[in-house]
Amino acid sequence: MMRFDLITIFPDYFASFLAQGVVGRAATAGLLQVVVHNLRDYAPAPHHITDDRPFGGGEGMVMKPEPIYRCLAALLGREPGPAAEGDPTRVYLLSAQGERFDQARARRLARLKRLVLICGRYEGVDERVAENFVDDELSIGDFVLSGGELPAALVLDAVGRLIPGVLGDPQSAINESFSEASPEDLDCPHYTRPIEFHGHTVPEVLRGGNHAAIAAWRRQQAELKKQRRG
Ligand code: SAM
Questions:
Q1: Residue 134: CB partners within 8 Å, gap ≥ 6?
Q2: Is the Cβ–Cβ distance between 75 and 82 less than 8 Å?
Q3: Which residue has a Cα nearest atom 9 of ligand 1?
Q4: 2-160 is classed in which CATH architecture?
Protein backbone atom coordinates (compact mmCIF):
# COMPACT_ATOMS: atom_id res chain seq x y z
CA MET A 1 0.00 0.00 0.00
CA MET A 2 1.41 3.38 -0.95
CA ARG A 3 1.93 5.82 1.89
CA PHE A 4 1.86 9.62 1.70
CA ASP A 5 3.48 11.70 4.45
CA LEU A 6 2.46 15.35 4.45
CA ILE A 7 4.58 17.73 6.52
CA THR A 8 2.87 21.00 7.37
CA ILE A 9 2.33 23.64 10.02
CA PHE A 10 -1.41 23.46 9.23
CA PRO A 11 -2.32 19.77 9.70
CA ASP A 12 -6.07 20.50 9.82
CA TYR A 13 -5.88 21.77 6.26
CA PHE A 14 -6.20 18.23 4.88
CA ALA A 15 -9.15 17.09 7.02
CA SER A 16 -11.98 17.91 4.61
CA PHE A 17 -9.95 16.80 1.59
CA LEU A 18 -9.37 13.39 3.21
CA ALA A 19 -12.98 13.07 4.36
CA GLN A 20 -14.42 12.86 0.85
CA GLY A 21 -13.78 12.22 -2.82
CA VAL A 22 -11.95 9.43 -4.61
CA VAL A 23 -8.69 9.70 -2.66
CA GLY A 24 -10.40 10.21 0.70
CA ARG A 25 -12.48 7.09 0.12
CA ALA A 26 -9.39 5.16 -0.98
CA ALA A 27 -7.65 6.13 2.27
CA THR A 28 -10.67 5.00 4.29
CA ALA A 29 -10.77 1.74 2.32
CA GLY A 30 -7.07 1.12 3.05
CA LEU A 31 -5.96 1.35 -0.60
CA LEU A 32 -3.50 4.08 0.34
CA GLN A 33 -2.34 5.65 3.57
CA VAL A 34 -2.05 9.36 4.31
CA VAL A 35 -0.22 10.53 7.42
CA VAL A 36 -0.22 14.24 8.21
CA HIS A 37 2.65 15.49 10.38
CA ASN A 38 2.52 18.71 12.34
CA LEU A 39 5.92 20.30 11.77
CA ARG A 40 5.59 22.16 15.07
CA ASP A 41 5.93 18.82 16.88
CA TYR A 42 9.53 18.76 15.64
CA ALA A 43 10.36 22.28 16.83
CA PRO A 44 11.61 22.83 20.37
CA ALA A 45 9.15 23.45 23.21
CA PRO A 46 7.75 25.61 24.61
CA HIS A 47 7.16 27.81 21.58
CA HIS A 48 7.52 25.27 18.74
CA ILE A 49 8.78 27.94 16.38
CA THR A 50 9.23 26.84 12.78
CA ASP A 51 10.20 30.14 11.11
CA ASP A 52 12.65 32.99 11.55
CA ARG A 53 13.73 36.26 9.94
CA PRO A 54 15.73 36.11 6.70
CA PHE A 55 19.48 36.65 6.68
CA GLY A 56 20.33 39.63 4.50
CA GLY A 57 17.11 41.41 5.38
CA GLY A 58 13.93 41.64 3.37
CA GLU A 59 10.30 41.05 4.00
CA GLY A 60 8.60 38.01 5.51
CA MET A 61 9.77 34.99 7.43
CA VAL A 62 11.62 31.86 6.32
CA MET A 63 10.92 28.32 7.48
CA LYS A 64 13.77 27.00 9.59
CA PRO A 65 15.68 23.90 8.46
CA GLU A 66 15.98 22.14 11.84
CA PRO A 67 12.32 21.09 12.39
CA ILE A 68 12.11 19.82 8.80
CA TYR A 69 15.37 17.91 9.20
CA ARG A 70 14.18 16.35 12.47
CA CYS A 71 10.83 15.40 11.00
CA LEU A 72 12.45 13.81 7.94
CA ALA A 73 14.98 11.93 10.05
CA ALA A 74 12.16 10.53 12.20
CA LEU A 75 10.07 9.53 9.18
CA LEU A 76 12.87 8.04 7.12
CA GLY A 77 14.86 6.46 9.94
CA ARG A 78 18.06 7.78 8.33
CA GLU A 79 19.89 11.01 7.67
CA PRO A 80 17.70 13.11 5.38
CA GLY A 81 19.12 13.47 1.87
CA PRO A 82 18.56 12.28 -1.69
CA ALA A 83 17.39 8.68 -1.88
CA ALA A 84 19.65 5.93 -3.17
CA GLU A 85 18.93 4.50 -6.63
CA GLY A 86 15.98 2.12 -6.43
CA ASP A 87 14.76 3.44 -3.07
CA PRO A 88 10.95 3.33 -3.27
CA THR A 89 10.63 6.41 -1.02
CA ARG A 90 10.97 9.95 -2.34
CA VAL A 91 10.89 13.30 -0.54
CA TYR A 92 9.76 16.47 -2.31
CA LEU A 93 9.59 20.06 -1.20
CA LEU A 94 6.64 21.91 -2.75
CA SER A 95 8.01 25.07 -4.33
CA ALA A 96 7.04 27.42 -7.16
CA GLN A 97 10.67 27.14 -8.26
CA GLY A 98 10.60 23.36 -8.56
CA GLU A 99 10.25 21.00 -11.48
CA ARG A 100 6.80 21.12 -13.01
CA PHE A 101 4.37 18.47 -11.81
CA ASP A 102 2.37 16.87 -14.61
CA GLN A 103 0.53 13.65 -15.42
CA ALA A 104 3.70 11.84 -16.50
CA ARG A 105 5.30 12.63 -13.18
CA ALA A 106 2.12 11.62 -11.36
CA ARG A 107 2.42 8.20 -13.06
CA ARG A 108 6.07 7.87 -12.01
CA LEU A 109 5.31 8.85 -8.43
CA ALA A 110 2.40 6.39 -8.28
CA ARG A 111 4.97 3.56 -8.64
CA LEU A 112 6.64 4.52 -5.35
CA LYS A 113 5.96 2.90 -2.00
CA ARG A 114 6.15 6.15 -0.10
CA LEU A 115 5.95 9.83 -1.01
CA VAL A 116 6.90 12.51 1.52
CA LEU A 117 5.72 16.05 0.73
CA ILE A 118 6.92 19.14 2.60
CA CYS A 119 4.64 22.18 2.56
CA GLY A 120 6.34 25.55 2.72
CA ARG A 121 4.81 28.80 4.00
CA TYR A 122 5.81 32.46 4.32
CA GLU A 123 8.69 33.45 1.99
CA GLY A 124 9.55 29.79 1.62
CA VAL A 125 11.92 27.30 3.19
CA ASP A 126 15.60 27.77 4.10
CA GLU A 127 17.38 26.87 0.85
CA ARG A 128 19.55 24.25 2.58
CA VAL A 129 16.52 21.98 2.73
CA ALA A 130 16.08 21.95 -1.07
CA GLU A 131 19.81 21.65 -1.62
CA ASN A 132 20.60 18.87 0.81
CA PHE A 133 17.69 17.09 2.43
CA VAL A 134 15.11 16.28 -0.25
CA ASP A 135 15.10 14.50 -3.59
CA ASP A 136 13.74 17.47 -5.49
CA GLU A 137 11.43 20.46 -5.50
CA LEU A 138 8.01 20.15 -7.12
CA SER A 139 5.98 23.00 -8.60
CA ILE A 140 2.33 22.74 -9.59
CA GLY A 141 2.62 25.70 -11.99
CA ASP A 142 4.08 29.11 -12.65
CA PHE A 143 2.15 31.03 -10.02
CA VAL A 144 2.71 31.65 -6.35
CA LEU A 145 0.37 30.33 -3.67
CA SER A 146 0.55 31.22 -0.02
CA GLY A 147 1.44 27.70 1.10
CA GLY A 148 2.40 24.22 -0.02
CA GLU A 149 -0.72 22.53 1.40
CA LEU A 150 -2.89 23.07 -1.67
CA PRO A 151 -0.07 21.85 -4.00
CA ALA A 152 0.47 18.82 -1.74
CA ALA A 153 -3.25 17.99 -1.84
CA LEU A 154 -3.14 18.35 -5.62
CA VAL A 155 -0.17 15.98 -5.94
CA LEU A 156 -1.81 13.51 -3.54
CA ASP A 157 -5.01 13.56 -5.59
CA ALA A 158 -3.31 13.18 -8.99
CA VAL A 159 -1.00 10.40 -7.76
CA GLY A 160 -3.48 8.69 -5.45
CA ARG A 161 -6.11 8.15 -8.14
CA LEU A 162 -3.53 6.28 -10.26
CA ILE A 163 -2.88 3.66 -7.60
CA PRO A 164 -4.42 0.36 -8.72
CA GLY A 165 -7.89 -0.13 -7.25
CA VAL A 166 -8.48 3.52 -6.36
CA LEU A 167 -10.55 4.32 -9.45
CA GLY A 168 -13.60 2.07 -9.59
CA ASP A 169 -13.01 1.43 -13.30
CA PRO A 170 -9.29 1.17 -14.26
CA GLN A 171 -10.31 2.07 -17.81
CA SER A 172 -11.03 5.64 -16.59
CA ALA A 173 -7.33 6.45 -16.20
CA ILE A 174 -6.55 4.88 -19.58
CA ASN A 175 -9.13 6.93 -21.51
CA GLU A 176 -8.57 10.30 -19.92
CA SER A 177 -6.44 13.30 -20.91
CA PHE A 178 -2.61 12.94 -20.93
CA SER A 179 -2.83 9.14 -20.71
CA GLU A 180 0.29 6.97 -20.78
CA ALA A 181 -0.45 5.65 -24.28
CA SER A 182 -1.00 9.14 -25.76
CA PRO A 183 0.28 11.81 -23.38
CA GLU A 184 -0.44 14.61 -25.89
CA ASP A 185 -4.10 13.73 -26.24
CA LEU A 186 -7.12 15.06 -24.40
CA ASP A 187 -10.27 13.32 -23.30
CA CYS A 188 -13.42 13.61 -25.46
CA PRO A 189 -16.48 15.64 -24.35
CA HIS A 190 -18.93 13.89 -22.01
CA TYR A 191 -22.70 14.35 -21.74
CA THR A 192 -25.47 13.05 -19.51
CA ARG A 193 -29.22 13.61 -19.13
CA PRO A 194 -31.25 15.68 -19.92
CA ILE A 195 -31.00 15.40 -23.69
CA GLU A 196 -31.91 19.06 -24.02
CA PHE A 197 -30.78 21.72 -21.57
CA HIS A 198 -31.45 25.44 -22.10
CA GLY A 199 -31.74 24.78 -25.82
CA HIS A 200 -28.47 22.84 -26.03
CA THR A 201 -28.83 19.20 -27.09
CA VAL A 202 -26.63 16.17 -26.59
CA PRO A 203 -25.00 15.28 -29.96
CA GLU A 204 -27.21 12.85 -31.82
CA VAL A 205 -24.44 10.32 -32.53
CA LEU A 206 -24.10 9.62 -28.79
CA ARG A 207 -27.77 8.68 -28.60
CA GLY A 208 -27.79 6.35 -31.58
CA GLY A 209 -26.10 3.25 -30.14
CA ASN A 210 -23.66 2.89 -33.06
CA HIS A 211 -20.47 2.16 -31.13
CA ALA A 212 -18.11 2.55 -34.07
CA ALA A 213 -19.65 5.92 -34.94
CA ILE A 214 -19.49 7.00 -31.28
CA ALA A 215 -15.81 6.03 -31.02
CA ALA A 216 -14.99 7.90 -34.25
CA TRP A 217 -16.92 10.99 -33.09
CA ARG A 218 -15.15 10.95 -29.71
CA ARG A 219 -11.72 10.71 -31.36
CA GLN A 220 -12.56 13.59 -33.67
CA GLN A 221 -13.90 15.78 -30.84
CA ALA A 222 -10.86 15.09 -28.66
CA GLU A 223 -8.65 16.12 -31.60
CA LEU A 224 -10.64 19.34 -32.06
CA LYS A 225 -10.24 20.13 -28.36
CA LYS A 226 -6.51 19.62 -28.65
CA GLN A 227 -6.29 21.91 -31.67
CA ARG A 228 -8.33 24.62 -29.91
CA ARG A 229 -6.01 24.37 -26.90
CA GLY A 230 -3.03 24.96 -29.20
N1 SAM B 1 9.09 33.25 -2.18
C2 SAM B 1 8.62 32.14 -2.94
C3 SAM B 1 8.82 32.39 -4.43
O4 SAM B 1 8.73 33.54 -4.84
O5 SAM B 1 9.02 31.42 -5.19
C6 SAM B 1 7.14 31.87 -2.70
C7 SAM B 1 6.83 31.29 -1.37
S8 SAM B 1 5.15 30.84 -1.21
C9 SAM B 1 4.42 32.35 -0.67
C10 SAM B 1 5.10 29.81 0.19
C11 SAM B 1 5.09 28.33 -0.07
O12 SAM B 1 4.00 27.98 -0.88
C13 SAM B 1 6.30 27.79 -0.79
O14 SAM B 1 7.38 27.55 0.08
C15 SAM B 1 5.76 26.49 -1.39
O16 SAM B 1 5.80 25.43 -0.45
C17 SAM B 1 4.30 26.85 -1.67
N18 SAM B 1 4.04 27.17 -3.07
C19 SAM B 1 3.66 28.37 -3.56
N20 SAM B 1 3.48 28.32 -4.89
C21 SAM B 1 3.70 27.04 -5.26
C22 SAM B 1 3.67 26.35 -6.51
N23 SAM B 1 3.36 26.98 -7.64
N24 SAM B 1 3.96 25.03 -6.52
C25 SAM B 1 4.29 24.38 -5.38
N26 SAM B 1 4.35 25.00 -4.16
C27 SAM B 1 4.07 26.30 -4.10
A1: 72, 80, 82, 91, 92, 93, 118
A2: no
A3: 146
A4: 3-Layer(aba) Sandwich (3.40)
Q: Where in the chain is the domain with CATH 3.40.1280.10?
A: 2-160
pLDDT digits (tens, 9 = 90+) for 156-213: 999 999 999 999 888 888 889 999 999 999 999 999 999 999 999 999 999 999 999 9
For residue 163, the number of C-alpha atoms closer than 13 Å in the C-beta half-sphere is 28
The stretch 9-33 carries a mean pLDDT of 95
Residue 181's Cβ-count burial label (10 Å; 0-12, 13-18, 19+) is exposed
Of all atoms in ligand 1, which is nearest to the CA of residue 63? 14
Ligand 1 pocket test, pick from 121, 134, 144 with the greatest ligand atom count within 8 Å of Cβ, gives: 144
Which helix H or strand E contains 16, and what residues bound it?
helix 15-19
Class of domain 186-229: mainly alpha
Q: Which residue intervals of the chain bear CATH 1.10.1270.20?
A: 186-229
Please check whether residue 139 is in contact with residue 195, taking contact to mean a CB–CB distance below 8 angstroms.
no
